[in-house]
Design a protein that fits this description.
By secondary structure, the chain is α/β, with parallel strands linked by helices. It has a 4-stranded parallel beta sheet, sandwiched between helices. Strand 5, helix 6 and strand 6 form a beta-alpha-beta unit. The longest helix is centred in the first third of the chain and has 18 residues. The two termini are about 15 Å apart.
Length: about 240
């Protein structure tokens, strides 16, 4: 039986991000599992259209599954880089479940794996006098409890917030925690796979400006988690468990 792995990401129109993160992870997967056909897919129709306008073709997960079936692949493993089982995962990944399609759960699934949390924290090395704020995406439509549950597993000097103002933990929630921890210096880091515009606009922009306006000394890590080899290795481990 012919088998394939689909690496499914939200997507990016930034060539450097795709090369540095998506393509690098894809190459690492192909090297580890040479017997499997490796394909990439995006869940963002907006990103797919932006790339198509530049002559770059990439499919959605459902389209890629159909292509593989049409050429005789009988076993497909769908590996999402989406960190949580949020709205994007439910609407674009979960719907692909079928007898011939095995979907690997997001890394930050319930219950949260403490090894995965430790790997994330090891990617972002803060100094002893810094508080760390991890900024995830959140959802404007429905609350995702993963971020609050993640917060329960961290120490007093580590805080979790989300970009979407209508979701929690929001900026005000994080400020309250910073007051209790008597923070002065802060390391802002993206709890995001590829970062991109969210890091530039929302983290290095919005959160940084609001925190510095309140007197905090802030530095920002701009690299998404997928930039770190130790984090990408978590996806290899998930595939090993599945295969």
């Amino acid at each position: 039986m012919r088998s394939a792995i689909i690496l499914a990401s939200f997507g990016s129109a930034d060539d450097s991000i795709r090369e540095k993160i998506f393509d690098k992870l894809a190459a690492e997967i192909q090297e580890k599992f040479p017997a499997y056909e490796l394909r990439q897919a995006f869940t963002s129709n907006f990103m797919i259209k932006k790339l198509a306008a530049r002559g770059i073709s990439i499919s959605t997960p459902t389209e890629e599954i159909s292509k593989l079936r049409n050429v005789g692949f009988g076993r497909i493993i769908l590996l999402p880089t989406h960190l949580t089982a949020g709205e994007e995962f439910d609407n674009k990944i979960k719907i692909c479940a079928a007898e011939d399609v095995k979907i690997i759960a997001p890394l930050l699934s319930e219950p949260i794996d403490k090894k995965i949390l430790a790997t994330i924290l090891n990617c972002f090395q803060k100094s002893a006098d810094e508080d760390l704020i991890l900024i995830g995406h959140g959802s404007p439509h429905r609350h995702n409890p993963v971020y609050e549950n993640l917060q329960k597993l961290t120490g007093d000097k580590i805080h979790v917030g989300v970009i979407e103002a209508s979701d929690t933990p929001n900026f005000s929630d994080v400020i309250e925690r910073l007051k209790k921890s008597r923070a002065d210096k802060i390391l802002l880091a993206p709890l995001l796979f590829n970062g991109g515009v969210h890091v530039t606009a929302d983290i290095a922009g919005g959160w940084f400006n609001r925190l510095t306006a309140q007197g905090y000394r802030v530095r920002v890590i701009r690299d998404g988690l997928g930039s770190f080899k130790k984090f990408r290795e978590l996806y290899i481990e998930k595939l090993e468990e599945t295969i």
